[in-house]
# Entry
Amino acid sequence: MKLATQAIRHVDLFAGIGGLRRAFDAVGSHCTFSSEWDGFSQQTYEANFRDNRKVDGRDLRDVQAGEIDDHDILLAGFPCQPFSIAGVSKKNSLGRDHGFADLTQGTLFFDVVRILKRWRPAGFLLENVKNLKSHDGGRTFEVIRRTLEEDLGYELHYRVINALHYLPQNRERIVIVGFKEPTSFSWDRLVLPPIGQTKMSSILHPEDGSEDPEGEYTLGPRAEVNSKYTLSDKLWNYLQGYAEKHRAAGNGFGYGLVGPDDTCRTLSARYYKDGSEILVKQDGRRNPRRLTPRECARLMGYDDTFRIPVSDTQAYKQFGNSVAVPVFEEVARIMLPEIERIKKSKPQTLQAVA
# Structure
């Protein structure tokens, strides 16, 4: 789906494994700069985007705004842990700061602001957890809104979108879109399939020989899932006991067991620990199994051409931290005409603002 009719350029900040870039590449935008500090994510990114330049691996706080290449759209999935429900709960239990008070991650939003202020791109897209809007009683989001809308002068639009429209995963994320000039942008233009119509069967290995075996994920002529993904008796017994303990206490904690006709919970970066949020039922065996990394890739909207050059542990972390690609491809589709309109209204090369 290539929509751009003139050269649209984007930069990919906190790039991870390139989910946002993949979405905007799909509509014809061109990436001019990528920033990602995690070495394993860089490895996956560079395996899938064969540019002449490497990902800038510095902490974004160490990157001068003027070092970033010219662009029309800034993309940033800035770290969500300081604002997520799970992240806030963990930091509270450890007596640590969260939100903007978390100086290691929470203030990275202002590095995005620093770059927006310098380059004044035609638009931007920011992504974060749903909880960003309610964090700290709404005060965190009010700072973000006021900074982008009032201080920088961008027209702001935001909406929480669930990946269940496209994928068999309940994954709600807030999408924040901004334009430097007034536009006719409307979320009503999103074409969202009915929620929940896509089931786990669309991402699970069929294990019937209709797909080729892949690495250590699937084996043999039927490409059956490697037995290493089946939970051990010890882990399965622990998860069942843990769930029962919380059920007795009236809590909702526990594993999520799914079959081909189901949808699943949110895939998290902690999936590598025990896989408990998404366990796949197995016929003829007592214990369920984890998803393979390839199934995790499919669950996030990456097709099977996407290369996974890292260990299972790193792959689980990367896909758990990724965006749901089809959601953002649709957002990119409705953003592009507005970006092109802004470019046509100012037919000149963007210049950095001192």
